[in-house]
Design goal:
Four Helix Bundle (Hemerythrin (Met), subunit A), mainly alpha, DUF1706
Length: 171
Amino acid sequence: MTGESEKERLLIDSEQKFNALLDIIESVPSRKRSTSIETQDRDKNFRDVVMHLYEWHAMLERWYREGMDGDIPFTPAPGYKWRTLKQLNMNIWENYQEVTLNQALKKLMLSHERVMSIIKSHTNEELVTKKYYKWTKTSNLYSYFAANTSDHYMWAIKKCEPIAKSIKQGT
């Protein structure tokens, strides 16, 4: 696939990994998809992983909106620093324990579409040029989007594969 821009590659990778994640979830019979597994990990079921992705999309959308409005967004979230990410992620997990998997999937599908639309609205140059936007500081938009789409979807796939395997094996 020569000649692809970083933007095109990001869009393709993100869609492929997003669909692969959904395929893993759909590989489990629907009546068993809400099953939690025994694990020391924070995320014990598909919903936990899906809502984690959704919340990071929401944070990305906030950073983007505030940044494009001329502000410097507080990252990762108000009251948190990058070194307190573990606590932020645990609070995200706690906040979504009452959400059903179906609700979570609907939220994630919508947020995925919104983020993909934002990516599509930019030129390759706008995405990959460091410091193109003041709010990205020494980085570029691409790194923000990749971290919250294709890279994060890969993380989610690695989390959901053992969940699916465990449910299918009935353990």
